[in-house]
Every structure is written in structure tokens, then in C-alpha cells.
Write a structure and sequence with these properties.
Layout (H helix, E strand, L loop, with lengths): L1 H22 L3 H17 L9 H14 L1 H33 L1 H15 L7 H8 L3 H25 L3 H9 L4 H39 L4 H10 L3 H33 L11
Helix pairs in contact: 3-11, 4-5, 4-7, 4-9, 4-10, 5-7, 6-7, 7-9, 8-9, 9-10, 9-11, 10-11
Length: about 280
């Protein structure tokens, strides 16, 4: 009985340890909320400058109950999806072509660095004149943000594939397309996915900024509209939703794909399997 009890205690301790590690990322948020509640209790600021936590929760509940929140979230996500798909597709294809031809990559590199340094929001005054207010404007700004990041990472990934792997396939009779399919593309995938992960994060930021002045729906527009009525509770509610969606996309979508890709092609090792 003592041996069985010891095993049960060990299993329970391991389960608690795993739970603690899973909950650890929530600790910084708990500290921020605690500081927010403490400051509001002591300073008692006006609701227009800093609302109470319960006011933000109430505003979020009201927006969700009326369906307004879902409308804004779906509008933002649909624009993000379209802009990211266009940026990723053009960035990967263009980066792959440039990466396979080093002179082309060196020729384009100054131009890519130049435009990548220009924030997508800088284009806003011009794009409003070109495309008007609406989805096209937001999609262009997302594409502009995602494309250059994905392009640069794709070029880097293609060029960093060891040539000995390509030569091995060619020595076995593989042609150019076989080398690209079986060596270059798998070797570049971790870099491509890293670019997609970064591009999606920056694209999400560009979208929200574009919606502040260039859309009639979306989370950015929801925040902008709330500022006109001094509804800081809705502003903070929108900020919380934006950050939560960003974390969800990164941790539950892109990060698992990136890890599986890197581990699949043997570029990292699993420490748990080491002796």
C-alpha cells in the first residue's frame, strides 16, 4: 500500500507541475490586472481616462450580446485572412525565385530593404486616394506588411540550404525540379514559416491601424468610434480582444506548425530524447 501511495503522490506531483507550467504564462496578466485594480481603487480616476475592470467586462458583455462585437471581429479577421494569403503567396513565390538566383536576389535586396523599412501606415494617405475607404485599403496595407517579411525570409531560407544536399540528389540522378521539391523547399520551410509568423503579427497591427481611419467595421473602427464618445471601457475592451486574438493565432496556429516543420526536417533536436 505504501508503494502504491508513493506512486500516486508522484503522479499527482507531476500533474501539478505540468498544470503550473501551463498556467505560468498567465502570471504576468494577473499582475497587470492586480496593478490596474489597485490603482483604480486608490486613485479613483474618471471613467473617461481609466475605467474599472468590471466596467470593461460589462462593456464586452453588452457588445457580445448585441452581436456588434462578432461583426467587428469577423470583419477584421476576414481582411487579415485575405491580406495575409496574398502577401504570403506572393512573398513565397517571389522569394523562392529570387533565392534560386543569387544575382537576382542581390539586385532586388536594396529595393526590398527600402520598402520594408517604410511602415504600411505611411502609405495610408496615398492608398485612401487610390483605393478609397474599405476592405481594399486594409488588404493592401496587410499585403504590404506581410509580403516583404515573407520575401526576405524565403530568400534567406533558400540560400541557406547546404549545397551538399543538392549535389547529393543530383548525383543520384535527380533533376532540378526534384532537387527543389525534395531538398530546397523542405530546407527553406522553417524560414518561410518564421516569416509568416512575424508577418502575421505585423499584418494584424497594420490592419487595426488601417481600420482606425479606413473602414466602417472592424475592431480598429470600433475603438475609433468609442473615442468620440469617451468610452474608454470599449477602447480597452477592443485592445484586450486584439491582443487575445494575436496570442491565439501565434500560440495555437503558427507556433505548432513552425515547431512541427522544424522538427520534421531535423534542424532541431528534442531534448527529451537525448540520453
Amino acid at each position: 500500500m505504501s508503494g502504491a501511495a508513493a506512486i500516486q503522490r508522484s503522479l499527482a506531483r507531476r500533474a501539478l507541475d505540468r498544470l503550473a507550467w501551463r498556467l505560468l504564462p498567465l502570471a504576468p496578466f494577473a499582475l497587470v490586472l492586480s496593478a490596474w485594480a489597485a490603482y483604480w481603487t486608490i486613485a479613483q480616476p474618471t471613467p473617461a481616462t481609466l475605467p474599472a475592470i468590471q466596467d470593461v467586462v460589462s462593456a464586452m458583455w453588452d457588445l457580445a450580446a448585441t452581436g456588434e462585437l462578432a461583426t467587428h471581429v469577423l470583419a477584421s479577421l476576414s481582411r487579415l485572412l485575405l491580406g495575409t494569403l496574398l502577401g504570403a503567396l506572393t512573398g513565397v513565390v517571389g522569394g523562392f525565385i529570387a533565392g534560386l538566383n543569387r544575382p537576382v536576389a542581390e539586385f532586388l535586396n536594396p529595393l526590398i530593404v527600402f520598402f520594408n523599412a517604410i511602415s504600411g501606415i505611411v502609405w495610408l494617405p496615398l492608398v485612401i486616394g487610390w483605393l478609397g475607404i474599405g476592405t481594399a485599403l486594409a488588404v493592401f496595407l496587410i499585403w504590404n506588411t506581410v509580403f516583404f517579411i515573407v520575401f526576405q525570409n524565403t530568400v534567406l531560407g533558400v540560400q541557406l540550404v547546404p549545397q551538399v544536399y543538392e549535389q547529393s540528389v543530383q548525383a543520384l540522378g535527380g533533376g532540378r525540379w526534384e532537387t527543389i521539391r525534395s531538398v530546397i523547399l523542405p530546407g527553406a520551410l522553417p524560414y518561410i514559416l518564421t516569416g509568416l509568423r512575424s508577418g502575421l503579427g505585423f499584418g494584424w497591427r497594420a490592419l487595426i491601424a488601417a481600420e482606425l481611419v479606413g473602414a466602417t467595421t472592424g475592431l480598429g473602427q470600433m475603438i475609433f468610434g468609442a473615442t468620440e464618445f469617451h468610452r474608454s471601457d470599449i477602447v480597452i475592451c477592443g485592445c484586450l480582444i486584439i491582443g487575445t486574438i494575436a496570442i491565439a493565432m501565434d500560440r495555437w496556429l503558427l507556433l505548432p506548425i513552425e515547431r512541427r516543420t522544424v522538427q520534421r526536417w531535423g534542424l532541431v533536436f528534442d531534448a527529451r530524447k537525448e540520453p
